Structures are given as C-alpha cells and as structure tokens.
Amino acid sequence: MKKFIFIDRDGTLIKEPKNYQIDCISKLFFEPNVIISLSKLLRFGYKLILITNQDGLGSASFSIKHFSFVQKFMLQIFASQGILFESILICPHFEKDNCKCRKPNIELVRYWVHNNIMDRKNSYVIGDRKTDIQLAKNMGIRSFLYNAKLLSWEHITNILTTQNRSAVVLRKTNETKIYIKINLDCPIKNYINTGIEFLNHMLDQLRVHSGIYLHIDVTGDLKIDDHHTIEDIGIALGLALKKALGNKFGISRYGFTLPMDESLSSCVLDLSGRISCFFKVNFKYQFIGDLNSCMIKHFFHSLAQSMQISLHIYAKGKK
Fold first, then answer.
1. Which of the four, 182, 196, 204, 218, has the lowest number of CB atoms within 10 Å?
2. Contact at 8 Å (CB) between 163 and 184?
3. Where do the CATH 3.40.50.1000 domains begin and end in the chain?
4. CATH hierarchy code of domain 3-161
5. Phi-psi region of 20 (alpha: psi -120 to 50; beta: other; left: phi over 0)
6. Which of 225, 235, 108, 221 is nearest to 170 (CA)?
7. pTM
8. What is the DSSP pairing of strand 176-183 with strand 287-288?
9. Which active-site residues does the annotation give?
C-alpha cells in the first residue's frame, strides 16, 4: 500500500484572495516553502493528490476558462520542479447545492478509501479549513490544519519526514537464541549481552558512533566455541538493520574513515542490495580480550550478506 497526501489548493498550496476566486495570474502566489516541502515529501515516498472545492466553477461569475488558465500555469510551475500530482479532484458546486463530492464528503476520494491501496496509518489530509480536517476523519486518516505562521509547510514536512525506523528479529537455531530490537530514530533502552565481553564493547561502539539504539540478548553454545554465536549475531543484526532501513528514503549510502591516535581504519559501505565484503585487517594476537580475532572478519561477512550491502573494511596501525 502507498502513502498519500491529499492537499487542499487555495489557502494551502497557494494564497487565497479575499474574494476566494483565483481567476487570473496576478492573483497567484505560492505559500511559503511549499515547493521545497513537496519535493522532499516526494523523495520520502509520498504520493500527492490535489483536492479542492471551487464554489460555482463554470458559472457566469467564475468561468472554467479563467480557472483553467491559472490552474495550468500553477501545475506547470510545480512540474518544472519535479512535483507531479497523482490526481486532481475538483468539486465545482456551492455548499447550498448539497452535492456528494464537496469536502468533507468522500465521494471524490472514494477510490482511495474503498480499494485498499492507501496506507491509512501514513496518509494525511493537509488543508487550511475545518472541512479538510473533517474530510480526513471521514476517510479514517490523520490531518494537518495548515497555517503559514502556526503550522507551516516546513513544520509539517519535518513531522512527516522524521521517521521511526525500527525492527525486531528473533533468530533461534540449535546453537543460538538471539533477540535483537533496533531503532534508528527513537530512543529505546540500550542493552547488549552476547556472552563475549569484547564483542559487547564492539557492538556498543557501533551503537554510540552510529546513533543507533540497540537491544541485543544472546544465548549461544560458547562452551563449544564462539563461531556459531558470532556468525548468528552478524546475520541477525544485518537482518534487523535491513528491515529497519526499509526503502532507505532520506539516507546517505556511503561510509567513513576514522583516525584514532596511531591507528587508521576505514569502513566504506554501499546500501545497494548487492552483496560483497572485503576485510583487510591484520591482527597480531589471536584474542582481543575474550574475542577470537579471526572471527571478526566472519562477523562482518555475515552482516554484509544478511543486510545485502557492499562493505569494505581496512585498518592499520602500530602493533
């Protein structure tokens, strides 16, 4: 299902004059930040639908010719910035006509309401009147009452593009039982228990420097060796990250280089869906704390495979 935003026109996309009719170019003024905001919303996967009441459109006092000229010009400006509307819905009636298509009635949006194509949890109505808010209620979705000073386009867009990307993965095998809860945006209680103290530390550093919130609880067959535990943690963490990232809207694809005292490490990654892992690090000792150093490479290979990323890790320094 898709995310839709049903947007009022006069007073929301463009300024509404005192006589309520925008029938010539000289009356056309865009609301502040509307173009940059709609561009951002499109990048985050929202589909835009224009829905407007145009009282008496087609009557002697409000000709279709004059309306269409301004409407076409407005849409051309939006299109020049890559902003296209999936549909344009217009009710031409007066309130006294008691028609079924005038907002807040849902006749114009019946297709989206009844065909199970709309993600109701993440679809909205944006408008400057109470009828727009009532339309949203009638559709079973949420709304924003637009006001350039109190609830601006910039503010609305920030709300709609602040994500809550999270995932829960439970992986259970004959050798391990792993529970991972992850959130990329909103705080959760951080907890890391793998049974390997230095791996706990390594994962906690990943959490701190990435800004990711992690809850990891692991029971593994460490009495035999650490292979299954480390491999399965890499697989489960990769799956959790992949799930939380979702469609990857609004994020950068690539990684970083970290200088630290006498060492230099580089982690370069591409969230491409193509799987590869190159790991070039030489360890002097077999163990770093209680972590078997030869398993570190295997951890990142498992992570890259389950997360479906291209990952390059290089490190050097004094031994």
1. 204
2. yes
3. 3-161
4. 3.40.50.1000
5. left
6. 235
7. 0.62
8. unpaired
9. 8, 10
